[in-house]
Amino acid sequence: MAELLRTSPLQAWTDTFARLPDPVGITAEPFVATVDVRLGTVGPEASAALGVDLPTAPNTWVPAGTGRAVWLGPDEWLLTSSTETPEEFEARVRAAVLPLGGSATDVSAQRIGLRLTGARVRDVLATGCSIDLHPRVFGRGSSAQTTLGQAGVVLLALSDAADDFLVLVRSSFAGYLADWLLDAALEFTTTPTHDR
């Protein structure tokens, strides 16, 4: 039986992303295992079982081993792992939260990650996102479920010192968002010419 190869919905955009000038960088993130966790009570038992203190402050994320734990709601988190297969990760997380009355669902194929970097990336995001992206308000550890262009996304600020963001978008909207980001970046990556 032939093994299916995993390909990214953004594979066709890789070369175009690579040609963007410095003020805005866009790269498709490698595939990661992702699990949606529902858990009514978060405390030391959950932290010990999962190996991470789940963020309890709204709109935040924390590092979690080789991935991240993202707050999605009062009883919902998105956990990622870059070293485990989706099946292994879901099984491990489910075994940790089931005794605590929680649930874990593999959603690895649901979202694609786009890494946005560069001095003008906040400007690009601001053209299609209504949240305040100033570093004092939306710095490292911040996350938001918002709309970018017309696509629903989860936006994570990865750094305070640099403009570095991760955008998680549903796989079915990945192509649309890639085109939208490239179009929005044009304003900040091209040098205007003036007639003399």
Automatic annotation (TrEMBL):
Gene3D superfamilies reported for this sequence: Heterotetrameric sarcosine oxidase (3.30.70.1520), Probable tRNA modification gtpase trme, domain 1 (3.30.1360.120)
UniProt superkingdom: Bacteria
Name of one Pfam family that matches: SoxG
Annotated protein name in UniProt: Sarcosine oxidase subunit gamma
SUPFAM superfamilies per record: Folate-binding domain
